[in-house]
Amino acid sequence: MPSMLSSRRLGAAAAFAALLASVVNAQAAPVGATVLFDAQLAKATSVAHAPFKAGGVEWSCSTTHCAGKGPGGDPLATCKAVTKQVGALKSFTAAGRAVDLASCGAVAPAMVAAPMKAAVPAGTAAAAAAPHPAPPAAPAPPAAPAPKKGASASGGVAITTQTFTLTGTGVAAPRAAFTPMSWSAPAMTLTGTGTAPTRAAAGIAFTTDTMRLTGRP
Amino acid sequence: MSPSARRPLISAAALAAAAFAAAAFARPAAAQAKDFTITVPVNVSGLPSNITEMGISCTIMPEDYGDGRNAIAGGVQRFPVSGSYSGTVTISMNALPGKDPALARWYSCTAQFYGTERGVAATFFASGTTTPPVFPLVAGAPFYLGRNDRWTRIPGR
Questions:
Q1: Which of A80, A121, B1, B120 is the most buried (most CB within 10 A)?
Q2: Exposed, middle or buried by CB within 10 Å (0-12, 13-18, 19+), for A161?
Q3: Hey, is A210 helix, strand or coil?
Q4: Fold entry, domain B36-153
Q5: Taking the domains of chain A in order of start, what are their residue ranges?
Q6: What is the pLDDT of residues A83-102, one digit of tens each?
Q7: What is the pTM (predicted TM-score) of this model?
Q8: Where are the domains of chain B?
Q9: CA B103 to chain centre
């Protein structure tokens, strides 16, 4: 009888252990698990991107977003892979969880928050060029007044920022100044080798209002 | 100890397992809540007609905010504007996979405007300052669009 009881206890303990393991697994990152991805394009395209494979995921696209299903072990790598194919993104989610676009290089250049610098006086050249500093020992002086904070209903962090304010005149952006470049050379020579390149080279595009070539008599 | 005396022990274990299971199944609903919710009041006006969208992006960083790879969470909202916009924009985000939301210490939010300039897509006030490309502003009027090189301490962290 005691041995029967022991087996019952062992059975219950085993069941509990199995349940515990399943709970732990459910909370762990679903490494290797198949998840749904959604990438919203930063800019709608006139024609939908053809289906492609990136980051081990098969993607199909509309003119505004791409959807894929595949391994969810490394969402950031998947985000980077799809960004290489379709360009800047508005959002990227893996299994419903947003991936930081700045980290995966998917943000349109002006939206990138990644080049983070220490606080420097506004409007100075250093503000744009300062290298990443060591973190401050004390809180850096915030540019905005102290924000309000409260606990959200979910228990997460809730913050309200300063009001983003701007008053324009309604006038369109002024035409950017254009400084003509002057370039002269005694002769321009280009000699091919007669062989085709082994791989396609990345093109360089250069756009300007006017290209003027003035010859010397 | 008799078998009957031992039975309650087994039942207690089973009850504990059931309670644990119930808690586990209840968890997904709670997991849908976001780790960070940032509310950004917006009041912009006098936008020229070539401005079609406004965007707000926020990033959450740990104590060491100097390296973008340390980002704990990030989110972007882009929305159409026509002439003006007054309201709040909410950016909700979860910690990135492998990042601990409890380590969040700093946040930064910035705003930009999108449109065209001479028919070419352009971003305005991208630096959060009046560094071009910009559009004309009313002299002396309040101006604040946030800057991604300015970090604000998360209150209480």
A1: A80
A2: buried
A3: coil
A4: Immunoglobulin-like (2.60.40)
A5: 34-108
A6: 888 888 888 888 877 888 88
A7: 0.45
A8: 1-32, 36-153
A9: 15
CB B55 within 8 A of CB B126: no
Say whether A135 and B65 touch across the interface (CB within 8 A): yes
Q: Classify the complex by whether its ipTM is higher than 0.90, answering yes or no.
A: no
Residue A213 pLDDT > 80: no
Please report, rounded to a whole number, the percentage of residues in chain A having pLDDT higher than 70: 46
| Separation of alpha carbons A13 and A7, rounded Å | 10
Chain A partners of B156 at a C-beta cutoff of 8 Å? Answer: 149
pLDDT digits (tens, 9 = 90+) for A155-185: 689 999 999 999 999 998 766 566 666 666 6
The residue ranking higher by pLDDT, A71 or A49, is A71
CB-CB contact of A57 with A71 (8 Å): yes
What stretch of H or E contains A7? helix A2-27
CB A84 within 8 A of CB A48: no
Q: CA A85 to CA B39: how far, in whole Å?
A: 32
B-proximal residues of A, 60-119, CB under 8 Å = 75-76, 90-91, 94, 97-103, 107-119
What are B69-87's pLDDT values in tens digits? 999 999 999 999 999 999 9
Q: Are B13 and A13 in contact (CB under 8 A)?
A: yes
Chain A residues lying within 8 Å of B87, measured CB to CB: none
**What DSSP letter does each residue of A155-209 carry, written as one string?**
SSEEEE---EEEEB-SPPPPPPP--------S-------SS--SSPPPP-----S
Q: Which residue of A has its CA nearest to B47?
A: A170
User: What percent of chain A has a predicted confidence (pLDDT) above 90?
Assistant: 7
Q: Rounded to an integer, what distance in angstroms lies between the CA atom of residue B96 and that of residue A76?
A: 9
Q: What is the DSSP letter of A122?
A: T
A144 class by beta-carbon count within 10 Å (0-12 exposed, 13-18 middle, 19+ buried): middle
